[in-house]
Write a structure and sequence with these properties.
The chain has 93 residues and is mainly alpha-helical. It has two domains: 1-51, no CATH class; 53-88. The protein is built from three helices and no strands. Pfam families: BMFP.
Length: 93
């Protein structure tokens, strides 16, 4: 899952980009509302991306690597068996 602290930080930074004229005490509520809107939009957008965590990615990468190694070993075994079949039996020429 995505760390909500990162989303909060990004929403805070986006709200800090609001023009200085809107940042005063009377506009603090507006700034907080904008920050919440940014946060909601970011969470919604990221949720639609169907992302995986780094840990999930690393696990699947390791599984793929092991599978590839097994496949390569099987290919070598099949090649050795096929080579053995094409050779004439010992003692025959």
């Amino acid at each position: 899952m995505i760390d909500l602290n990162h989303i909060d930080d990004l929403a805070r930074r986006l709200s800090d980009l609001v023009p200085p004229g809107l940042r005063g005490a009377p506009n603090e509520a507006l700034r907080e509302e904008l920050q919440q809107s940014f946060k909601t939009a970011l969470q919604g957008g990221l949720a639609r991306l169907d992302l995986v965590t780094r840990e999930e990615f690393d696990v699947q990468r390791a599984v793929l690597l092991r599978t590839r190694e097994k496949l390569e070993a099987l290919e070598r075994s099949v090649q050795a068996l096929e080579s053995a079949q094409t050779l004439p039996p010992a003692g025959q020429h």
